[in-house]
Amino acid sequence: MDTSILQEQRYKYEPKLPASLRQPIPSIACTFGKATESAGDAEQVQGMFPLTYGQPIAGFTSGDNPVAGKQRTVGVILSGGQAPGGHNVICGMYDALKAANERSRLLGFLGGPSGLLENNAIELTDEIIDSYRNTGGFDMIGSGRTKIESDEQFARSAEVAKELDLDGLVIVGGDDSNTNAALLAEYFKASDIETSVIGVPKTIDGDLRNEQIEASFGFDTATKTYSELVGNIGRDANSAKKYWHFIRVMGRSASHIALECALKTHPNICIVSEEVAEKERSLADIVEEIAGSVAERAENGENFGIVIVPEGLIEFVPEMNGLISELNDVLAAAEKTDSHSDPDERNRQVSERLSSGAREVFRSLPSSIQSQLLMDRDPHGNVQVSRIETEKLLIEMVDAQLSEMKRSGSYKGKFSALSHFFGYEGRCAFPSNFDADYCYGLGYAAFVLVANGLTGYITSVRNLAKGPAKWEAGGIPLTMLMNMERRHGSDKPVIRKALVELDGKPFAEFARQRPKWRVKTSFASPGAIQYFGPPEVCDQPTETLKLERG
């Protein structure tokens, strides 16, 4: 791609490292705590990982690592969806590897995990690395969603590791990808393959985190990008004073993005999926909440506003969750049927196979939403919620509710609504200074873990709300993050997703403010990500991190 003036300037940015990593690689030693346990189902998880279970948390300190300067070959894989900062993870690995030994090699597997299985890799050089520093995207080596899970895939991975004489393999990904990393580390150890396997926490959704992993990379940049757009719309709405904007943002399994954007921009309504599930709120309840805000604001002559909706909302609404579950079963059992060219006829055929309760819910939905619910499933057999236009469903239902309120005389305003979906706009943005620093540190730490002979770990940089000078780097045993879940008829080890905690500080602050935001125009416009200037402008972490850890 051609470079912009901004990109040329970003090449020159020097990421800030935690203090423990700002010393020669041979002088970085590991410290270890006590043995760890899994997040749940300890006996089952230990049975799955007998060789890597219970490892201690690793930290870095000044010391002596006599083998740090060994010539090594290390591989890196980008797995899953893009997230801002992925290139800096690789740059951090490369700089650490070359600082330890100039003759060491970093191989980038092309196209994600399939690149490992196909032994399709390139050697990363100064020229390649320098052209991707502090840039967005995953285009340096590409990504993919292949899962390494079959016996044949594990055996092939081992063959490639032997063929390339890999000392280390770093897998950059989300919860599923890091679960694969844990399984691969266990398999290699059982097969006497001396390839360290290290994971790096990546997802803009923000649901790969816990006490040890305070944030997944990319969340900071993505939420700042979305918040700029929401803030711009808020300023426009307050100027035009005639539109309600329904904005769907990324976040299937958790509402961290929606909550962070709300804390930054102060919309009139922000739906938090976890609260919907906890309180068993129906679709009608949500519509009533939005319509109530519209009516109250209309009394003040303000026929405009903003509603933020997480993309995964529909799966958290009890009646919709039950419907989707039945639809998954019906469609899985009838893969070769229901191919009718008329979508209305297909919708009718499918609805007849549902239980009476699910059928009633399905038939209450607009035909466009019915058709979206019947689209092709993802590789796990689940509905692709990112393709369901929940914001348009809510607009239609709110409009109908307001029409009823008009007939009864309880609403006299005007309702004109526009819909938006902010998704891909945030996945490949120039990483913020925070993500540029954080990712570089994660990559640097990944190599240090490899250089210390560790395997089955995920890199960790903590104390993130305090600034890089006070950050603490290390590694967390992957098994510590796991529990067992029932998937496709069998128990599988998985990394537990982190949902919005309704008793946590970020949600508590949102809950404190939302009664005011619901009625009063309080929109905030955070503006574009700033890359140059004082730290209080350029290096601030997310509102979520400041509230949780500040």
Fold and architecture overview:
The protein has helices at residues 5-11, 42-48, 86-100, 113-117, 126-130, 151-163, 175-190, 219-240, 256-265, 273-278, 283-299, 313-316, 318-333, 343-351, 356-364, 367-373, 390-408, 433-451, 505-519, 535-538, 543-549, and strands spanning 28-32, 58-62, 73-78, 105-109, 121-123, 168-173, 196-201, 244-249, 269-270, 305-310, 417-422, 457-462, 472-477, 482-487, 490-495. It is globular, with a radius of gyration of 25 Å. The mean pLDDT is 94. With 550 residues, it is of the alpha/beta class. It has a nine-stranded mixed sheet with strand order 1-2-13-12-7-6-3-4-5, sandwiched between helices. A four-stranded parallel sheet has the order 9-10-8-11, sandwiched between helices. The protein has a two-stranded antiparallel sheet with strand order 14-15. The chain contains 21 helices and 15 strands. It has two domains: 19-218 and 431-487, Rossmann fold (3-Layer(aba) Sandwich); 225-426 and 504-549, 3-Layer(aba) Sandwich (Rossmann fold), CATH 3.40.50. 42% of the residues lie in helices and 15% in strands. Helix 13 (318-333) packs across helix 15 (356-364).
Q: Please state how the strands of the largest beta sheet are arranged side by side.
A: 1-2-13-12-7-6-3-4-5
Return the structural class. Answer: alpha/beta
Question: Helical content, roughly?
Answer: 40-55%
Helix count, per DSSP?
A: 21
Poorly predicted regions: none
Number of strands: 15
Q: What is the number of independent domains?
A: 2
Instruction: Tell me which oligomeric state these chains represent.
Output: single chain
The CATH class label of the largest domain is: Alpha Beta
Cα end-to-end separation: 39 Å
How does the overall form come out from the CA principal axes?
A: globular
The largest β sheet comes out as: 9 strands, mixed
